[in-house]
Protein backbone atom coordinates (compact mmCIF):
# COMPACT_ATOMS: atom_id res chain seq x y z
CA UNK A 1 0.00 0.00 0.00
CA UNK A 2 1.60 3.27 -0.98
CA UNK A 3 1.01 6.32 1.16
CA UNK A 4 0.19 9.84 -0.05
CA UNK A 5 3.06 12.17 -0.91
CA UNK A 6 4.47 13.76 2.23
CA UNK A 7 5.50 17.43 2.22
CA UNK A 8 7.24 18.73 5.32
CA UNK A 9 8.35 22.26 6.11
CA UNK A 10 11.44 22.78 8.25
CA UNK A 11 11.42 26.28 9.69
CA UNK A 12 14.93 25.82 11.14
CA UNK A 13 15.80 28.68 13.57
CA UNK A 14 13.14 30.94 12.13
CA UNK A 15 9.74 31.88 13.38
CA UNK A 16 8.16 33.76 16.25
CA UNK A 17 4.56 33.65 17.43
CA UNK A 18 3.51 35.98 14.60
CA UNK A 19 4.76 33.43 12.06
CA UNK A 20 1.97 31.10 13.21
CA UNK A 21 -0.31 33.13 10.93
CA UNK A 22 1.47 31.42 8.01
CA UNK A 23 0.93 28.02 9.64
CA UNK A 24 -2.77 28.75 10.11
CA UNK A 25 -3.08 29.70 6.44
CA UNK A 26 -1.28 26.50 5.43
CA UNK A 27 -3.54 24.47 7.70
CA UNK A 28 -6.70 25.98 6.22
CA UNK A 29 -5.50 25.29 2.68
CA UNK A 30 -4.43 21.72 3.47
CA UNK A 31 -7.82 21.03 5.07
CA UNK A 32 -9.37 21.51 1.62
CA UNK A 33 -6.99 19.01 -0.04
CA UNK A 34 -6.90 15.24 -0.21
CA UNK A 35 -4.12 12.92 -1.27
CA UNK A 36 -1.22 14.72 0.38
CA UNK A 37 0.16 14.60 3.90
CA UNK A 38 1.70 17.79 5.27
CA UNK A 39 3.81 18.58 8.33
CA UNK A 40 5.59 21.62 9.74
CA UNK A 41 8.61 21.53 12.03
CA UNK A 42 8.93 24.90 13.79
CA UNK A 43 11.57 25.70 16.40
CA UNK A 44 10.98 24.02 19.78
CA UNK A 45 9.57 27.27 21.17
CA UNK A 46 6.56 27.15 18.84
CA UNK A 47 5.63 23.47 18.94
CA UNK A 48 2.95 23.69 21.60
CA UNK A 49 1.43 26.85 20.09
CA UNK A 50 1.46 25.33 16.60
CA UNK A 51 -0.30 22.24 17.95
CA UNK A 52 -3.07 24.47 19.25
CA UNK A 53 -3.25 26.41 15.98
CA UNK A 54 -3.64 23.59 13.43
CA UNK A 55 -5.76 20.52 12.81
CA UNK A 56 -5.05 19.32 9.27
CA UNK A 57 -1.25 19.18 9.35
CA UNK A 58 1.31 17.33 11.45
CA UNK A 59 3.59 19.11 13.92
CA UNK A 60 7.22 18.12 14.33
CA UNK A 61 10.50 18.82 16.06
CA UNK A 62 13.77 19.44 14.22
CA UNK A 63 15.90 17.30 16.54
CA UNK A 64 15.71 15.36 19.80
CA UNK A 65 18.09 14.02 22.43
CA UNK A 66 18.63 10.27 22.75
CA UNK A 67 17.75 10.21 26.45
CA UNK A 68 14.19 10.58 27.74
CA UNK A 69 15.25 13.09 30.44
CA UNK A 70 18.23 14.12 32.52
CA UNK A 71 21.18 16.47 32.86
CA UNK A 72 21.50 17.68 29.24
CA UNK A 73 21.32 21.45 29.35
CA UNK A 74 19.66 22.96 26.31
CA UNK A 75 18.46 19.65 24.89
CA UNK A 76 14.91 18.41 24.39
CA UNK A 77 13.88 14.76 24.50
CA UNK A 78 11.55 12.96 22.13
CA UNK A 79 9.16 12.36 25.02
CA UNK A 80 9.05 16.12 25.66
CA UNK A 81 8.31 16.78 21.99
CA UNK A 82 5.46 14.30 22.16
CA UNK A 83 4.22 15.92 25.36
CA UNK A 84 4.24 19.33 23.63
CA UNK A 85 2.04 17.91 20.88
CA UNK A 86 4.54 16.85 18.22
CA UNK A 87 3.73 13.96 15.91
CA UNK A 88 7.15 13.58 14.30
CA UNK A 89 10.76 14.63 14.50
CA UNK A 90 13.48 15.25 11.92
CA UNK A 91 16.85 13.68 12.80
CA UNK A 92 20.23 13.83 11.10
CA UNK A 93 19.66 17.08 9.19
CA UNK A 94 22.96 18.09 7.59
CA UNK A 95 22.98 21.30 9.64
CA UNK A 96 22.87 19.19 12.84
CA UNK A 97 25.55 16.88 11.47
CA UNK A 98 27.79 19.84 10.53
CA UNK A 99 27.09 22.29 13.37
CA UNK A 100 26.96 19.72 16.19
CA UNK A 101 29.20 16.94 14.87
CA UNK A 102 26.38 14.41 14.83
CA UNK A 103 27.49 10.96 13.65
CA UNK A 104 25.40 8.34 11.89
CA UNK A 105 25.39 6.30 15.11
CA UNK A 106 23.98 9.24 17.06
CA UNK A 107 21.35 9.86 14.38
CA UNK A 108 20.31 6.21 14.59
CA UNK A 109 20.05 6.45 18.40
CA UNK A 110 17.92 9.60 18.07
CA UNK A 111 15.64 7.90 15.55
CA UNK A 112 15.20 4.95 17.88
CA UNK A 113 14.50 7.26 20.84
CA UNK A 114 11.89 9.11 18.80
CA UNK A 115 10.11 5.91 17.78
CA UNK A 116 10.18 4.67 21.37
CA UNK A 117 8.49 7.94 22.42
CA UNK A 118 5.70 7.34 19.90
CA UNK A 119 6.83 9.92 17.33
CA UNK A 120 7.31 9.18 13.67
CA UNK A 121 10.72 10.07 12.36
CA UNK A 122 12.32 11.58 9.25
CA UNK A 123 15.95 10.49 8.84
CA UNK A 124 18.03 12.88 6.67
CA UNK A 125 21.00 11.93 4.52
CA UNK A 126 22.91 13.66 1.74
CA UNK A 127 26.31 14.11 0.13
CA UNK A 128 28.58 17.15 0.02
CA UNK A 129 29.50 18.81 -3.23
CA UNK A 130 33.00 17.29 -3.12
CA UNK A 131 31.51 13.81 -2.74
CA UNK A 132 29.16 14.43 -5.68
CA UNK A 133 32.00 15.77 -7.83
CA UNK A 134 34.21 12.77 -7.10
CA UNK A 135 31.47 10.34 -8.16
CA UNK A 136 31.00 8.93 -4.66
CA UNK A 137 27.54 10.34 -3.91
CA UNK A 138 25.52 7.13 -4.11
CA UNK A 139 28.06 5.09 -2.16
CA UNK A 140 28.43 7.74 0.55
CA UNK A 141 24.70 8.37 0.99
CA UNK A 142 23.90 4.64 0.96
CA UNK A 143 26.46 4.06 3.72
CA UNK A 144 25.10 7.02 5.65
CA UNK A 145 21.57 5.64 5.42
CA UNK A 146 22.60 2.11 6.44
CA UNK A 147 24.25 3.50 9.57
CA UNK A 148 21.55 6.08 10.42
CA UNK A 149 18.38 4.00 10.09
CA UNK A 150 16.72 2.73 13.24
CA UNK A 151 17.03 -1.02 13.76
CA UNK A 152 14.28 -3.24 12.39
CA UNK A 153 13.28 -4.01 15.96
CA UNK A 154 12.93 -0.31 16.87
CA UNK A 155 11.15 0.55 13.63
CA UNK A 156 8.76 -2.42 13.52
CA UNK A 157 5.03 -2.17 13.25
CA UNK A 158 3.17 -1.07 16.35
CA UNK A 159 -0.29 -2.61 16.31
CA UNK A 160 -1.89 -1.53 13.06
CA UNK A 161 0.67 1.20 12.42
CA UNK A 162 3.02 0.16 9.62
CA UNK A 163 6.71 0.95 9.33
CA UNK A 164 6.05 3.41 6.49
CA UNK A 165 3.77 5.46 8.73
CA UNK A 166 6.49 5.71 11.38
CA UNK A 167 9.55 6.31 9.23
CA UNK A 168 10.46 8.49 6.25
CA UNK A 169 13.85 9.28 4.75
CA UNK A 170 14.88 12.65 3.31
CA UNK A 171 17.57 12.76 0.65
CA UNK A 172 19.04 16.25 0.88
CA UNK A 173 22.25 16.98 -1.03
CA UNK A 174 24.16 19.34 1.27
CA UNK A 175 25.15 21.53 -1.69
CA UNK A 176 21.50 22.01 -2.69
CA UNK A 177 20.27 23.24 0.71
CA UNK A 178 19.50 26.93 0.65
CA UNK A 179 21.53 27.50 -2.52
CA UNK A 180 18.89 27.54 -5.25
CA UNK A 181 20.71 24.64 -6.93
CA UNK A 182 19.09 21.23 -7.44
CA UNK A 183 20.41 17.94 -8.82
CA UNK A 184 19.27 16.74 -12.23
CA UNK A 185 16.12 14.66 -12.32
CA UNK A 186 18.26 11.69 -13.41
CA UNK A 187 20.52 12.09 -10.36
CA UNK A 188 17.53 12.39 -8.01
CA UNK A 189 15.96 9.28 -9.53
CA UNK A 190 19.19 7.28 -9.30
CA UNK A 191 19.76 8.27 -5.68
CA UNK A 192 16.21 7.47 -4.66
CA UNK A 193 16.49 4.05 -6.31
CA UNK A 194 19.73 3.39 -4.42
CA UNK A 195 18.11 4.42 -1.13
CA UNK A 196 15.08 2.21 -1.82
CA UNK A 197 17.43 -0.76 -2.16
CA UNK A 198 18.98 0.05 1.22
CA UNK A 199 15.53 0.34 2.84
CA UNK A 200 14.49 -3.05 1.48
CA UNK A 201 17.81 -4.53 2.59
CA UNK A 202 17.21 -3.12 6.08
CA UNK A 203 13.53 -3.93 6.55
CA UNK A 204 12.51 -6.38 3.84
CA UNK A 205 9.14 -5.85 2.16
CA UNK A 206 8.18 -3.15 4.71
CA UNK A 207 11.01 -0.98 3.36
CA UNK A 208 9.38 -0.72 -0.04
CA UNK A 209 6.63 1.62 1.22
CA UNK A 210 8.81 3.97 3.27
CA UNK A 211 8.65 7.41 1.66
CA UNK A 212 11.89 8.90 0.46
CA UNK A 213 11.53 12.68 0.30
CA UNK A 214 13.71 15.01 -1.73
CA UNK A 215 15.02 18.15 -0.01
CA UNK A 216 17.19 21.02 -1.17
CA UNK A 217 15.98 24.29 -2.75
CA UNK A 218 12.49 22.98 -3.55
CA UNK A 219 10.26 25.88 -4.60
CA UNK A 220 6.89 26.29 -6.34
CA UNK A 221 8.59 26.41 -9.76
CA UNK A 222 10.62 23.20 -9.52
CA UNK A 223 8.32 21.20 -7.22
CA UNK A 224 6.21 19.53 -9.91
CA UNK A 225 9.23 18.13 -11.73
CA UNK A 226 10.98 16.98 -8.55
CA UNK A 227 7.85 15.49 -7.02
CA UNK A 228 6.96 13.54 -10.16
CA UNK A 229 10.43 11.99 -10.38
CA UNK A 230 10.13 8.21 -9.94
CA UNK A 231 10.91 7.20 -6.37
CA UNK A 232 10.28 10.63 -4.86
CA UNK A 233 7.65 10.32 -2.13
CA UNK A 234 7.47 13.95 -1.13
CA UNK A 235 9.62 16.94 -0.19
CA UNK A 236 11.41 18.39 2.80
CA UNK A 237 11.30 22.15 2.38
CA UNK A 238 13.34 24.77 4.21
CA UNK A 239 13.18 28.41 3.11
CA UNK A 240 10.03 28.08 1.01
CA UNK A 241 8.06 26.70 3.99
CA UNK A 242 8.13 30.02 5.84
CA UNK A 243 5.49 31.57 3.60
CA UNK A 244 2.06 29.98 3.17
CA UNK A 245 1.95 31.07 -0.45
CA UNK A 246 5.22 29.43 -1.50
CA UNK A 247 4.74 26.35 0.67
CA UNK A 248 1.25 25.75 -0.68
CA UNK A 249 2.64 26.09 -4.21
CA UNK A 250 4.80 23.08 -3.40
CA UNK A 251 2.05 21.16 -1.61
CA UNK A 252 -0.28 21.68 -4.57
CA UNK A 253 2.35 20.18 -6.88
CA UNK A 254 2.44 17.06 -4.71
CA UNK A 255 -1.32 16.48 -4.56
C1 LIG B 1 16.44 21.85 4.40
O1 LIG B 1 17.31 22.43 5.03
O2 LIG B 1 15.90 20.82 4.85
C2 LIG B 1 16.07 22.40 3.11
C3 LIG B 1 15.58 21.59 2.24
O3 LIG B 1 16.31 23.75 2.92
P1 LIG B 1 15.95 24.61 1.60
O4 LIG B 1 14.62 24.14 1.10
O5 LIG B 1 15.95 26.01 2.09
O6 LIG B 1 17.05 24.32 0.62
TrEMBL record:
Gene Ontology molecular function terms on file: triose-phosphate isomerase activity
Listed InterPro entries: Aldolase_TIM, TIM_sf, TrioseP_Isoase_bac/euk, Triosephosphate_isomerase, Triosephosphate_isomerase_AS
Gene3D superfamilies per UniProt: Aldolase class I
Active site: 93 (electrophile), 172 (proton acceptor)
Keywords recorded for this protein, A-Z: Cytoplasm, Gluconeogenesis, Glycolysis, Isomerase
Pfam families: TIM
EC assignment: 5.3.1.1
Keyword field contains Metal-binding: no
Subunit structure: Homodimer.
NCBIfam families from the UniProt entry: tim
Protein name from the UniProt record: Triosephosphate isomerase
Organism: Novosphingobium tardum
Gene: tpiA
Amino acid sequence: MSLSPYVVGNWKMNGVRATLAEARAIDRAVARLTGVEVGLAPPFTLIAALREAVTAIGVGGQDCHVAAKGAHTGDVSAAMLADAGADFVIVGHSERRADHGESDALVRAKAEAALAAGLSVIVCVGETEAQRDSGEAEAVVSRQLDASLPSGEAAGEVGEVKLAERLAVAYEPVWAIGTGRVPSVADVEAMHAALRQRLVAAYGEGGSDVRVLYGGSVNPSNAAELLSTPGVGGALVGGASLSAESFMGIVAAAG
